[in-house]
């Protein structure tokens, strides 16, 4: 039973450690994306307009 307490304690410490490292990475700007916004305009997708019910009915009638 004491092994469970040791494993639980170690896993909580490791989890808190990874969380602290993650917060440090976010604060340092590691996950900021500075490349995609500059090239997003080059890959702009065309908007697909939905067909209205009248145009569908007129084509089938």
UniProtKB/TrEMBL annotation:
Q: Name one Pfam family in it.
A: FixS
Show the InterPro entries listed in the entry.
Cyt_oxidase_maturation_cbb3
Q: Where are the transmembrane segments?
A: 6-26
Q: Does the keyword Zinc apply?
A: no
Statement: the UniProt record of this protein carries the keyword Membrane: yes
Write out the entry's keywords from A to Z: Membrane, Transmembrane, Transmembrane helix
Q: What is this protein called?
A: Cbb3-type cytochrome oxidase assembly protein CcoS
User: What is the organism of origin for this protein?
Assistant: Winogradskyella pelagia
């Amino acid at each position: 039973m004491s092994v469970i307490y040791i494993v639980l304690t170690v896993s909580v410490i490791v989890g808190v450690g990874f969380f602290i490292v993650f917060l440090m990475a976010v604060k340092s700007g590691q996950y900021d994306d500075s490349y995609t916004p500059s090239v997003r305009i080059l890959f702009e997708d065309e908007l697909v307009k939905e067909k209205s019910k009248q145009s569908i009915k007129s084509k089938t009638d």
